[in-house]
Amino acid sequence: MAFWALDGGPYTCAMSPAPDPALFDKVVNLCKRRGFVFPSAEIYGGFRSTYDYGPVGVLLLRNVKEAWWRSMVQLRHDVVGLDAAILSPPAIWEASGHLQNFTDPLVDCRNCRERFRLDKLDDPNECPNCHAKGSFTEARQFNLMFKTYAGPVEGTGAEVYLRPETAQGMFVNFKNVLETSRKRPPFGIAQIGKSFRNEITPGNFVFRTREFEQMEMEYFVPPDEAGKWYEYWRHERLQWYVDLGIPADQLRLRPHDEDELSHYSAATSDVEFLFPWGWDELEGIANRTDYDLTQHARASGESLDYFDQALGERYVPYVIEPAAGATRTAMAFLMAAYDEEEVAREGQGQGESRTVLRFHHNIAPYKVAVLPLSRKPELQEPANEVLGLLQPHYMCDYDETQAIGRRYRRQDELGTPCCVTIDFETLDDRAVTVRDRDSMAQDRVPIDRLLDYLGAKLS
Ligand code: GAP
């Protein structure tokens, strides 16, 4: 199998750093300790494989989604947005093929009674839990969609599904968007939102959960241009992760084998990231052909084709779909940003180790931390002034407890690019100290020039 690197050349094993299994626990612990991610319903003992995003995690997740929206919608003239309903009627999933095909092969171990996805087992004859050989039942196809009921009566006719992908909302709104947005193929519809899958084996922290967020874009193109746009989006999407700070040697494109393709796909490549357990999927870029529009046109009776007046041709557009997971991507940014280093204790000669999240500025939850040196009342006024100056421009943290060195370490673990310290000299010179997260270098900056200074650093 050939993998592809950012420059379009083959990704060879020699380019691949080794995965670091120890990184997983370090990041998961930091997430809990610093308020990125908490296990859901923890006071009730937790609720298996569901997670809540804490005060810092919610900022991280918003930044991931904002960076995606900016690149996929805001900076383009050919993509518009959508926010479709999560609850959806069976007709959509009947037409899309999900009721029939959105299944994973499930096996049970007769020895220890654990359940597994057959296609994810290293050895399909050995149970990874109890190591019994030949103990699996015949594989059964298990549908991943969550079903519920709309209204007071739980019966046939009231069934609805939680969407397992955001994509179908964009296909069923194709005509609405075409008629209202003045877009013509090639053009795209983008959406960010929650999706739900009754995964057989959720796990690896927020990598595979039953409730997660997706960032998907359906790009509608003339059929004979599908190959060109598939290549274009493969490259664009790989580059997006690099532009936001993930090292290029921790990313690769993996084309799917024929027998892996989803029921709607003519070709798919995954953007893979080197997770602590090895290479795994971050995003899939698929050529969905005219499958979805044709299926919905047939099932609904609405025509979902496009008449190209210039060419005098009518056709059903093909769709190229970059489909990413927001929650999974946030986890990859955390893993890629995590670093430990030995440093001299700031202000003293002794060495110590520090943990730092070297996030790209656009991904960092807080851009600036405002830190009055002490809680003395005379420092409150300039600290509030600085906070008021910065808050309209940047997401800021404010922290006035503990020694300043400890507060710097906390901000390093949150990945905050700049700390602004207000000290007693500020009362005389109206200047503050700005500390850089990565170099730990400190600059003295007049409050009147602080916005310009930070603008240059954080732009
Ligand atoms: N519309 C196509 C589609 O949904 P997918 O490969 O099944 O394709 C796209 O999902 C992305 O959504 C994945 O690459 C992954 O990042 C994310 N994703 C899928 N299932 C997930 C799960 N159970 N937990 C977290 N993220 C998931």
DSSP strand (E) fraction? Answer: 25-35%
How are the strands of the biggest sheet laid out side by side?
A: 3-10-11-17-14-13-12
How much helicity do the residues have?
A: 25-40%
**Which structural class is indicated by helix and strand composition?**
alpha+beta
Query: Can you give the mean pLDDT?
Result: 95
Number of continuous helical runs: 13
Bound molecules: glycyl-adenosine-5'-phosphate
Question: Biggest sheet: strands, sense, closure?
Answer: 7 strands, mixed
The total strand number stands at 24
User: In terms of per-residue confidence, which ranges show pLDDT below 50 for 5 or more consecutive residues?
Assistant: none
- Report Rg: 25 Å
Shape: globular
Question: Span from first to last CA?
Answer: 40 Å
Walk me through this protein's architecture:
The protein has helices spanning 22-34, 55-74, 90-96, 98-101, 167-172, 174-181, 226-243, 291-300, 326-337, 377-390, 404-414, 426-429, 450-458, and strands at residues 37-39, 51-53, 79-81, 87-88, 103-108, 115-117, 140-143, 146-149, 159-162, 187-196, 211-221, 251-255, 267-275, 278-289, 306-308, 313-315, 318-325, 338-344, 351-357, 368-372, 396-398, 418-422, 431-436, 442-446. The radius of gyration is 25 Å and the shape is globular. The chain is built from 13 helices and 24 strands. By secondary structure, the chain is of the alpha+beta class. Helix 2 crosses helix 9 and helix 3 crosses helix 8 (291-300). It has a seven-stranded mixed beta sheet, with helices on both faces. Bound molecules: glycyl-adenosine-5'-phosphate (GAP). Glycyl-adenosine-5'-phosphate (GAP) binds at residues 165, 167, 197, 199, 208-209, 212, 214, 216, 281-284, 321, 323-325, 327-328. Glycyl-adenosine-5'-phosphate is lined by residues 165, 167, 197, 199, 208-209, 212, 214, 216, 281-284, 321, 323-325, 327-328.
